[in-house]
Amino acid sequence: MTNSNDIDEVNAGSAFPRRSTVDNSQILQQLSAIQAQLSQLADFSSRMEDKLLLVSDIYRYENLQAYLQKQDWFEADLETVNIILDIAGKDQDNLKPDDVQHFPVGALKVIDKLWRTYSDNRFGFSIQLRIYQDLGGTLETTIANDRKLIEKWGEQLGWREKNQWKKCEDLNYSLSAAVGCHPSQWWNSPYGSKMTNYFLGRLMQGKL
Fold first, then answer.
1. What is the DSSP string of 86-121?
2. Number of alpha helices (DSSP H) and beta strands (DSSP E) in the chain
3. DSSP string spanning 31-66?
4. What's the chain's Rg over C-alpha atoms?
5. DSSP secondary-structure letter at 165?
6. To the nearest whole percent, how much of the chain has pLDDT over 70?
7. How much of the chain, in percent, has pLDDT values that exceed 90?
């Protein structure tokens, strides 16, 4: 027979686990809510960084924006090269593939956003990257310096014809150009496909 003291001990012993389970559940819910808030804060911070970059460097992008507004794609293409070199602090002959691995992603996103905005999403770095990835391009193919894939990509962008690379001045500088055709002159590096692959890798790392 169980006396009243035994019953009290059983009840007392069984009460703690139930209260602990409730407490743990509440803690997990609170942690989940905090994680969601931190994720939202990180997204907000990222968006603000992009906006602040454009505001703080607004004069740097004025000429590019003006050319794009006028749909002067050739001059906008040249200005894109100027901006990149200005930020890197080097001329195009001295800008090495290793240098672009550390190029500010925020600046690339601003340039890309301007090109996409004024071309109705026909031109821009992110458009070029998407086409490369649609062809099977990955970070691994950039590391492997897959030249055949780069040539296939160039054909898609309207940069190659009859197994030959076109000169920049012979490209189509109008909205009837192939999707992703521009910006184009930046890619014309003395380091060839190595620079192309390094830059594509940087675009992937920057999640353009």
1. HHHTS-TTT--HHHHTTS-HHHHHHHHHHHHHHTTS
2. 9, 2
3. HHHHHHHHHHHHHHHHHHHHHHHHHHTHHHHHHHHH
4. 27
5. E
6. 77
7. 58
